[in-house]
Amino acid sequence: MNWNTPVRFVPMIGPIYAKRLEKLEIATAGDLLTHIPARYEDYSLISKIGSLQAGETVTIIVSLISVKNTYTKRGFVLQRAQVADETGQLEVTWFNQPFLVKTLRSIHRVALVGKVEMSGFKLTLVSPEYEVVRENKPLVHTGRIVPVYPETAGISSKWLRSRIAPLLETSIISEYLPPSIPMRLGFMDLPSALLQIHFPHAHSMITRARERLSFDELFLKQIQGEIRRNQWQQKAHVQPLYIDQEKCCQFINRLPFALTGAQKRVVGHILTNLQKSAPMNRLLQGDVGSGKTVVAAIAAFMVYLNGGTTLFMAQLRF
User: Which of 93, 179, 196, 280 has the fewest beta carbons under 10 Å from its own?
Assistant: First the structure.
């Protein structure tokens, strides 16, 4: 498996989920790894039952004592569990999720995350997220800063975390830049950036990871554009223009103003390009009123003197 492996071949995905991922524009393993979280939930506060306080959002790692379905007078199904750690016991409640009873009965240790509420004179957790605690396996959905992703039907953030976490441990991520470049720019390496954007060790790591990945996005677009430009220039050939220096100077001298040094420099670059057999592809930038139009007019005049035509496009604003 590598960066370009079709996503259906990523473990625990398959063709059905791959079809759903198309709506998120995820087609390869690399697309999945660069599916950036939209926000984060901070579940990093891990507490003991004996120190819980109403109103705080916490993660508790507990043993499951019992779990059962109970029914209200109105026919609603509640799932009630009793959990414990070395500091005390706590009641946990879910609503209308009867499948949880069968799921949780086979689990001994579980991490629960949610908001602590007061029920009568007792503290309780209502509808918490849960995660099975396994030996030598880090928590993915609880007990840490947890990513929340852009989702689609049948693809939840919890599902995405479960597939991205093991993928980050594979060898498909490697640094493609010379080590000196990230070091000189103060960026983290690519594997670290992807790890920290999905499962950050601290909020400050999210910012650093975004800086590196934003750089990569712009850098790769720049490279792709340069490759396309070189290919286009090698394949496309145009008739070099003859630049009549005398008439060009007459045109400039008849203007009601003198060109600035920057305008003269840009005109020189453009006229040099027009004399080549490779097509020119140039973006002229400048503030409003800086004189971009007159530079374009000089180039258009040279085209006219060579028997060519110029197309002007403008956006109308009302």
Answer: 179
Residue 235 has pLDDT above 90, yes or no: no
Compute the distance between CA of residue 12 and CA of residue 265 in angstroms, rounded to an integer. 59
Chain centroid, CA 280 distance in Å:
34
CA angle 64–66–72, rounded 5-degree value = 130
Q: What is the spatial distance between Cα 313 and Cα 293, in angstroms, rounded to a whole number?
A: 12
| Residue 112 resides in a domain | yes
* Best CA proximity match to 3, nearest among 150, 185, 168, 227: 168
State the amino acid at position 101 in one-letter form.
V
Query: Residue for token digits 């993660």?
Result: 59
Answer positive or negative: Cα dihedral of 116, 120, 122, 127.
negative
Token readout for 85 is 């750690």
Burial of residue 131 (number of CB atoms within 10 Å: 0-12, 13-18, 19+): buried
What is the predicted pLDDT for the residue at 171?
Answer: 85
Q: How far apart are CA 251 and CA 217, in angstroms?
A: 43
- Enclosing domain of residue 62: 49-132
Model pLDDT for residues 26-76, shown as the tens digit of each residue: 999 999 999 999 999 999 989 999 999 999 989 999 999 999 999 888 888
pTM of the model: 0.76
